Amino acid sequence: MRAVQVSEYVKVSPITRHRQSFLYTKYHTRSNLNPLPPKQTPRKSKTNKPIHHYRAPLDLKTTEVPTPTPSPDKYLIEIHSAGTNFFDILQIQGKYQHQPPLPWIGGAEFAGTIAALPTSSASASSSLKYKVGDRVFGATQGAYATHVLAPESTLLPVPPGWSFEDAAGLFVTAPTSYGGLVHRAGVKEGDWVLVHAAAGGVGLSAVQIAKAKGATVIATAGTARKREIAKEFGADYVVDYTDKAWPEIVKKLCKENRSGNGAAGVDIVYDPVGMIEASLKCVAWNARLLVIGFAAGSIEKVALNRVLLKNVSIVGLHWGQYAKFETGTVGEVWKGIFDLVAQGKFRGTAFKDESFFGLDSVPKALQALGGRETWGKVVVNVDEKAKSKL
């Protein structure tokens, strides 16, 4: 298969059997995503050896690496679409908490078809959940490729009527939002929910889930286009969070449209950015504030007196650890998501304003994602089957 490789650091021998993928062989040490100036050369270390700055992601190139073969417990998946995530960029820079040994293939989320069964299936095929040709989506290291190996526990069936493009962005965003809103915050009919960064992948998922549960949604976003998208996905009100007075705007909306304790603010805050401190200014009594992430790049310090005075709860969600600590909840969350899909209350959030086709477009997709130029889930369509819904 083909892969993206840093050729100046690792030399790959010619091979005959291959697949296409993204292969990283050296970590980028710069904190931003912009290329170095053309004439800039690597600086010298104390030992007088060059310290190379890899210009991720635009320097990434595709190359040829061997196609993996099924293992006793892993399926071989032919990938048609791959989702992008901010942690993919962090891995490229060598800053993520989970760094594979060099060389490695990037990407995590994917959607595709089963190409081969686990090798242990010869004597126990009846116990396998999937068969060759089944449409699946999931997550595992190495999704920027034409093929990947994945255990059954990381795979789910593509919902009927969904394209691979939309399914490729489902595995991380949907359960994060459903687990947070439903299982951690207990969203219910009549609640008012404030969703920050509402036009992002988890944000659009949160908007849809909150609406499906009967809540009123106030969505924040930084551009007119992103606020337009949030409205298209069901938000009742949109607010520009670049306006420093946004908490007062939220309070005004609640005062004009709610009564009783609700007139003071919202019942739930869904925050993947790092806006809990400011959000405490516009919450109602007994509000629940969900800490989903820190996309703004810094960890907040919260005035706990406000937490006490408004009798609010601040709860975190680390969805990636549920498979370890609450396996039963994982199944409940996915059942809830698939129920909403079947009811027509949840749809894919793939970014549609620009297309990214082929693995050669991964660098451009990651740059767009890192530059906050997109909405929803940025998906790379690996081949022409990506938009197929059959």
Automatic annotation (TrEMBL):
Give me the Gene Ontology terms describing cellular component.
Answer: mitochondrion
InterPro entries in alphabetical order: ADH-like_C, ADH-like_N, ER, GroES-like_sf, NAD(P)-bd_dom_sf, Quin_OxRdtase/zeta-crystal_CS, Zn-ADH-like_protein
Pfam families of this UniProt entry?
ADH_N (PF08240), ADH_zinc_N (PF00107)
Q: Report the residue ranges that make up the Enoyl reductase (ER) domain in this protein.
A: 55-380
Gene3D superfamilies in the cross-refs: Medium-chain alcohol dehydrogenases, catalytic domain, NAD(P)-binding Rossmann-like Domain
Signal peptide feature range: none
- The source's domain of life comes to Eukaryota
Annotated region (Disordered) at 29-49
Q: Which CDD domains match?
A: QOR1
Q: Which residues form a coiled coil?
A: none
Kindly give the SMART domains that the UniProt entry links to this protein: PKS_ER (SM00829)
Q: Which GO terms describe its molecular function?
A: oxidoreductase activity; zinc ion binding
Q: What is this protein called?
A: Enoyl reductase (ER) domain-containing protein
